[in-house]
Design brief:
The structure holds two protein chains of two kinds. Chain A is an alpha+beta fold. Chain A has one domain (5-212): Muramoyl-pentapeptide Carboxypeptidase, domain 2 (2-Layer Sandwich). Chain A has helices spanning 5-14, 37-50, 57-80, 83-88, 98-110, 134-142, 152-167, 178-185, and strands at residues 24-27, 30-33, 114-121, 125-131, 191-197, 206-212. In chain A, helix 1 (5-14) packs across helix 5 (98-110), helix 2 (37-50) packs across helix 6 (134-142) and helix 3 crosses helix 7. Chain B is built from four helices and no strands. Chain B starts with 6 loop residues before the first helix and ends with a helix. Classes of the chains: A alpha+beta, B mainly alpha. Chains A and B meet through helix 3 and helix 8 of A and helix 2 of B.
Amino acid sequence: MAIDERAIVDAVAGLELRGNEEGLIPAFGLHLTTHFANYYNRSSFAVARALEGSGLEEDARTLLVEAGHVCAFNTFGGIMRSAEWDAVVAPMISSREDWIRGMVAVINAFGWGRWTIRELIPDERLCIEIENGYECAGWLKDYPVSHTPRCYLAAGGVAGLMNLLYVGDITLRPTLSDAYYSELFRDARSFGARATSCLACGDDRCVLVATRQP
Amino acid sequence: MVSVMGARLQAIVDRVRRESRGVVNVDLARLNLRVGQPLSRAAMEIPDTHELVAKAEAVANEILGAAQDPNK
């Protein structure tokens, strides 16, 4: 059976994910959060903008993308180990690459923008196109067209998908420990992602490409 | 005493790179941001002032110490 994205989106939508009185969403074996879409955007963009012209812009980007790596590891990794994944996505999985296809379908159910896999070369390269990604849509709402890509969290997420599957092996349901994180993201074979196109820069969508880091 | 331009700062950068137990480029970015100078890219162009070296050493110790002790 191939990954049926529509079925996954419908199933996740049917879970009626809503924040409790503390704003937490206990689901997928995690505690997701509910808050304003621009809350995280404005925090991260304030950091990036405060450092413009300081010579430290690249360092800000490194840490903001690192936040995406940590998010991918815990959130995507946690989802792929969850009972909900086993119930909804796992029955559709027939290849290793389906783990990424299934996770992208779940991401689309979350409403972070419309993610499409443009290219997936096993163990080598992942190209994700994002229409209306909330990070860069948020940038354009608050700031002028950017001279540099702003899809920090998504870049970390795309690299994280490849690291979970091809540097580690999320299919074996490993414990998502600090040590395992280091193993996945500091390995000589670790993936990193760069935007080749970005909505915040005036392009019509974001395109993120994950490859092994030189 | 005549200080060599950036030599001590470069030594701190090299130590973080060598002893990092986390993700090296992330630890270097943290060092740069905490010190307020792009040390990992330009240490040799920055004067080895006492204050800056002391600050960089303290930050490096903190980063490497935290990396070695997961409870920190």
